[in-house]
Amino acid sequence: ESTAMIGNPPWMEGRMRFGSFGTPSFMYDVTLADDAGNEITSPGETGHIVVRLDRWRAIGLFTEYIGNPEKMNQVFVNNFYYTGDRAAFDEDGYWWFVGRADDVIKSSDFRVGPFEVESALVEHPAVAEAAVVGSPDPQRYQLVKAYVILSPGHAPSRDLALELFQHTISILAKFKIPRIIEFVSEVPKTISGKIRRIELREQETEKKEKDGQKGEYEYFYQDFPELSSKKKS
Questions:
Q1: Is residue 45 located within the same domain as residue 120?
Q2: How many C-beta atoms lie closer than 10 Å to residue 90's C-beta?
Q3: What are phi and psi of 12, to 5 degrees?
C-alpha cells in the first residue's frame, strides 16, 4: 500500500538503536493513534501506526482498494490511514515495533505484542524459533501462549519448560510472560516465511471449543508451583 514509512536511512549509520526499526520518513506524516482515534504524543505509549492525511497526502500512499469500499472504510478513518501495525516511540524519536494490530494479545487490561515475547524466547539457546499468540481464556480473555521449536540436541520436557518460563521471567514484564508453552516441530508459515499467527489462533480457538485437552508437550505456568515466588511485580 505504500513505500517505506519508517526505517534507518544511510545518514543514520552509527546512530541506530538495536531493536528499533528506525524513525519516520520525511516522505510521510506518520504518527500514533490510540484505540479511540486520538493522536498519541507521549513516549512509551503503544498505539496504531497511522499516516496523517489532513495536512498533505504522501505521494507514495496508495489511492484505493479497487472494488472493496468496506476495506477502504476500515483503513481510512478521520483523516488517518491505518497501516495495521502497532508500535511505540521513545523520548528520542526512535520507533519500536509491537506487532500487527490483529496479532496483539489482549490479556486482562494489558496488550502484549508477540514480537517481544518471541524475541525473549529465542535468546535461550534451546529455542530455535518461537511463535506467540493469544489463547482464549474465560477470565483474562486471552493468555499469552508460545509455540516453541527446539534447537537440535534439545527435547521437550517439563524441566525445559520450567527453564523457559524462568528465562522469560528474568526478561519480560509480568503481564508479558507466557502462560502456556507448547513444544512443536513446526509452525504454519506463508510462502515468504512469515508466521501465520491467524492459523495458530484459529487452532487454539478450535481446541478450546472442543475439549480443551492439553497437548502432549504443552505446559501451563500455573502447573509449576516453583514459579510462584519468581513472579515479577
A1: no
A2: 12
A3: -90, 0
Tell me, what's the pLDDT at 229? 60
Kind and range of the H or E element at 70? helix 69-75
Q: How many domains does the chain have?
A: 2
In the predicted model, residues of the chain with pLDDT beneath 70 are 229-233
What pLDDT is stored for residue 138 in this prediction?
Answer: 86
Domain of 170, CATH number, reads 3.30.300.30
| 122-137: pLDDT as tens digits | 999 999 999 999 999 8
Do 72 and 128 lie in one domain? The reply is no
Domain that holds residue 63: 6-101
Instruction: List C-alpha distances in Å: 62 to 32, 48, 68, 229.
Output: 19, 18, 14, 52
pLDDT at residue 129, as a whole number: 96
91 CB-near residues (< 8 Å, 6+ apart): 43
pTM exceeding 0.90: no
Give strand pairing partners of 181: 146, 219
Does any domain span residue 25?
yes
Look at residue 151 and tell me if it is in a domain: yes
Contacts of 177 (CB under 8 A, 6+ apart): 144, 165, 168, 169, 221, 231, 232
Asked whether residue 94 is domain-assigned, the answer is yes
